[in-house]
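Example record

One chain of 333 residues, shown exactly as stored in the release files.
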Amino acid sequence: MRKQAQTLSSIDPQDPDYRRLRYCRYADDFILGFVGPQSEAEEIKQRLRTFLQEELKLELSEAKTLITHARTETARFLNYEIHTIQENAHRDHRDRRTLNGTIGLRVPREVVKKKCQSYRRYSRTVHHRTELINDSDFTVLALYQAEYRGLVEYYRLAYNLHSLTELEGTMEESLTKTLAAKYRMSVPKVYKKYQATFQEGEKRYKVLQVLIEREGKKPLVAQWGGISLHWDIKVPIKDHRTFLGPGRSELEKRLLADTCEYCGTTGDVERIEVHHIRALKDLKSYDGREKPAWVKVMAARKRKTLVLCATCHQDVTYGRPMRRKPMSVSPKR
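Predicted structure tokens for this chain:
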């Protein structure tokens, strides 16, 4: 009898007088969370259809506007799976079921599968990335780490974040094969050459690391691994500005130059940073008006990154007139 009682809810989930409606929107996507009978959910959907037709002159997409039972199905919002958790085995220190009835966010299985498949090229074997063989070790490790970190941080709120372990293993295999193909060595020798230990707080991780020493300054470090998959709904999301793709010339060489590529300011005077754009085609968005000097520099060099001093970086980021003159017309320092 006690076991049977533990399967019952502590409240009445079928209260006919209870209603709750919550609304969440991000950009042009929104989701409604409704507690109540399905007939009223259908009525809400019909009222949305009427509002869109009469007020906004739009048609409601039946394929995208779905009514989902959260206990037995999952709703998709911003590429998260959302559902109501039912887990009788999970108890707190008072032996109470604390998860039942709460809303859970999950990483969709097809997301992990699709990402892993991108490293297999329509086969079961993980392959190296040929386009990265001519780049430096620093660039290769930084690129793999940036791609993996971006996905982990996006799904940081998902309670099954640990499912990305499969993707981590696939990407690590691809990374080591890329370095092995670059130097024509075996994968075990790659681990022996690049393996290091990274500590964050009380945890120690085995990582692959490339370190470039700089005289009088902290070394440049690129590493693979050391990203925790421990779920915490309250953890602050870490948004690291990092290199997201190989440029025409090596990024670390330009950083080691320690000079602003726009005004020529050196790192001794001001901190040196890196400005990124999504794609080179974004530099063409100034058609019909004079392009800023920094846009001309990036377009001429065909680079998605530009090494700038902190002052120039702020002017570029916020779209302000440049306070400093470009090197071609600025006095020698």
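Notes: Strands lie at 20-26, 29-35, 75-77, 80-84, 103-106, 195-200, 203-214, 217-224, 272-276, 305-309.
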